[in-house]
Amino acid sequence: MANQPDTATVVAARAGDPVAVDRLVAGYLPLVYTIVGRALEGHADVDDVVQETMLRVLRNLGELREPEAFRSWLVAITMRQVRDRFRDRQAAPAAPLDADLRDPGADFTDLAITRLELSGQRRETAEATRWLDDENRELLSLWWLEASGELTRDEIVEGSGLGRQHAAVRIQRMKAQLETARAVVRALHRGPLCPELAVLIEPWDQRPSALWRKRIARHTRDCRLCAPAWHDLVAAERLLAGMALIVPAPTFAAGLRTGATAWPGKVVAAKTGLSVMQKVLVTALTVGVAGGGGVAALELNGQNDPAAVAAPPPIVTTPPSSAPAPASASPTPRRTSPSPAAAVPTAGKTAKKGVGVWRFTGAKAALEDVGAGWYYDWAAQNNEIPGPAGVEFVPMIWGRQNLTGATLKQAKAEGDVLLGFNEPDMAGQANMSVEEALAAWPRLEATGMRLVSPAVAFGGDTAGGWLDRFMTGARSKGLRVDAIALHWYGSDFSAASVGQFLGYVDAVHKRYGKPIWITEFGLMNFSGSPRYPSDAQKVTFIKGATAGLQKRRYVERYAWFGLPAVGDSVDFGLYRDGDSPTEAGRAYRAAG
């Protein structure tokens, strides 16, 4: 649950304490805004409905007999306002505004995608909400918050006015429609578009509707090219975790610091005689919300408010890795500006801390300087990048082409631990089916080495995902897997990224109960801009992430991607040469 004001705050606000009223409004505004925004799908009425809801809450607060039931009472008022607006629309339907003229900030799905930096199946799910019927979108606005831990089922029942069993049935119907809508979104985004689908949608006006949802869905079920749109859909509950609260943009309260009292299009001062904070009904809200989740930080008159709304650490679907194949060429060097001179902190050497390395000038010296306890280079032997004494090299069988007797013999000569295939779930990497990997695994077992699972690019915690199916198959066949390897890349560069990363690691360990090796991790936005974080953001993430990994006993090893900061890795690597760390390199050097 988000850290929202407690019952004592509600009691104080009900008694007229202006500070408590301010905290109550600030703490619950994101919840109301999210429910209304999703229910009305970003319609221009969202601001008005949120404003009217909060005004009704403040006007009627004195009548609330059970302060501990404030959240349920608030949700019920919010849903009544949403339904009133639905009825008003049906009574006097307005012509839809042309997409080119529509304010993009008014589209709640666009806002969610932009503000939360969604990608992959999370983005598909957000877009699919546009295709839901009004009644299902209304219910989704509540269930979405239940799935992310912001509301309870009891609060949904009270807010929707449905009985518990009726609510359960309605939610299942809504989820089925959402899954259909997700398949529709996938089919429409497929490149190249299915020729038969292109003909079908030629008369479509590009506006989501129930009719076109049914037509496109029926086509996808019967079409050989489009049918895969229904495959490998991660359960919506897992995608929604950490994506619940979208707070209003700071422009909602832009007038606060200057003493203005207007919301967009509305003057609140004329409606109530409350204080400036209560008139505006919003604090200055600054957002740091991630693609998987994060924190919506509240700022009161420039001061951080302890009632900040924080989402729980989410399960993250990570973007694909850009890890090189073992035989890849060294990146092309380019000129870079040196970092400001600063003292390099003492290296914190630990057996856990490692790095992924590819060939660059000074690799051996950098491995020594960074304090790595181990390293790997995606190969079965370290002839290309020999390390310093006392730094363990861990071999890998990268993919099917490395499954030869000679390569396995090389790996066995390097040590006691063997890393499995590199991102077999990615077409650009090892690209192996679960069945192919399982068939090959006995050859790795025959080395007698301790075996670390194939390292999936994403979805390691997902039921029915590549890793889950591999581990299930290994158990059924009696195959040995001694530890789990993971890769993780975050596109949220805020401080929330630490919780997202560690939450994913925790979730994978909870699913399989085995030691964890994180063989690649870092911050990169593969599909947006900026692609890489600032130096300060990298340092903050490295400090928080490594501290968390060091404390987790089940984490045996972790490795930053990667050691070189030359050529095309200058934006995320750690060392320019043997003794020139980047700011990120300094932070990683001190870790452990």
TrEMBL record:
Asl1-like glycosyl hydrolase catalytic domain ranges (all copies) = 371-588
Q: Which Pfam families match?
A: Glyco_hydro_cc (PF11790), Sigma70_r2 (PF04542)
Native species: Actinoplanes regularis
What are the start and end residues of every segment in region (Disordered)? 309-348
Return the similarity comment: Belongs to the sigma-70 factor family. ECF subfamily.
Please report the stretch or stretches of sequence annotated as the RNA polymerase sigma-70 region domain. Answer: 24-90
State the protein's name.
Answer: RNA polymerase sigma factor
* Ranges of compositional bias, category Low complexity: 324-347
